[in-house]
């Protein structure tokens, strides 16, 4: 894995992995990190991992998620590598209360890929719902600690340009981590141009600006067109 990490870094990319916080991998076909947090955290650091998504799969139910996820967070801090720690409880386990103290990011809802097999309208509604949650919990965001709205559905299940552009901008201004789920090599120039929007990118990266919130006259039935957003 160290060789793989080196190749990824040589390509000027970041090395990210997804690991189960339980006794089995999320697909049930391998081990999870439960009970081996310190050993695994050191392995991740030795491999050169930059990003760890730690997912609440196959837990035994004998400890709270806060205890289990804190243990991995502490193990990562004990290594000599700065690893972005992303926890995923799909918005459950009261993560909004302890996530900001434990991790760099925390998911607010079930994975967006859960809507992939359904009509596009469901993906669009799910996207808007995630944005509403981000607004509700905007006060939880601070430098190095972010609400994770899920992967961007650009050029996958949000095929219209206005949908993809809205998805990117809403996520960016909410300060969510930005992960593409489409094939970058096949994206249109118009779509790629939205990723180069310096206003949105700078807002996402600027630690001196708060996450977007809702101002007066908000229409929660249609956040894309009816929200008047501002920085506080």
Summarize the model shown:
The chain is an alpha/beta fold. Helix content is 39%, strand content 11%.
- Outline, from the CA principal axes? globular
Structural class by helix and strand composition = alpha/beta
Record the strand order, biggest sheet.
1-2-3-4-5
Number of helices: 9
> Which regions have little confidence, pLDDT < 50, spanning 5+ residues?
222-232
From the 3D structure, determine the CATH topology of the domain at 1-107.
TIM Barrel
How large is the radius of gyration? 18 Å
CATH class category of the domain at 1-107: Alpha Beta
Please count the beta strands (DSSP E, at least 2 residues each): 7
- Compressed to H and E, one letter per element, the order equals HEHEHEHEHEHHHEHE
The CATH superfamily label of the domain at 1-107 reads Aldolase class I
**Could you tell me how far the N terminus lies from the C terminus, measured between alpha carbons in angstroms?**
44 Å
- Provide the CATH architecture of the domain at 1-107: Alpha-Beta Barrel
The description of the largest β-sheet is: 5 strands, parallel
Mean pLDDT: 84
Specify the helix fraction band: 25-40%
Beta-strand share of residues: 5-15%
Organism: Strombidium inclinatum
Catalytic activity: Hydrolysis of terminal, non-reducing alpha-D-galactose residues in alpha-D-galactosides, including galactose oligosaccharides, galactomannans and galactolipids
Enzyme class: hydrolase
Family: Belongs to the glycosyl hydrolase 27 family.
């Amino acid at each position: 894995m160290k060789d793989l990490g080196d190749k990824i870094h040589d390509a000027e990319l970041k090395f990210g992995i997804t690991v189960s916080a339980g006794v089995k991998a999320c697909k049930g076909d391998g081990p999870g990190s439960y009970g081996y947090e310190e050993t695994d955290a050191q392995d991740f650091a030795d491999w050169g991992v930059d990003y760890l998504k730690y997912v609440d799969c196959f837990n035994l139910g004998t400890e709270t998620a806060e205890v289990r996820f804190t243990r991995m967070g502490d193990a990562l801090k004990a290594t000599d590598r700065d690893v972005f720690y992303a926890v995923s409880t799909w918005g459950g386990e009261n993560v909004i209360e302890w996530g900001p103290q434990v991790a760099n990011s925390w998911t607010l809802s079930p994975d967006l890929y859960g809507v992939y097999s359904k009509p596009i309208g469901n993906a669009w509604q799910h996207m808007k719902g995630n944005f509403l949650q981000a607004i509700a919990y905007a006060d939880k965001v601070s430098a190095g600690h972010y609400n994770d709205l899920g992967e961007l559905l650009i050029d996958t299940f949000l095929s219209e340009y206005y949908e993809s552009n809205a998805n990117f901008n809403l996520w960016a201004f909410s300060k969510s981590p930005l992960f593409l789920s489409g094939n970058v090599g096949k994206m249109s120039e118009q779509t790629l141009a939205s990723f180069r929007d310096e206003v949105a990118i700078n807002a996402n990266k600027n630690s001196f600006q708060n996450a977007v919130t809702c101002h007066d006259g908000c229409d929660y039935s249609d956040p894309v067109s009816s929200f008047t957003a501002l920085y506080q």
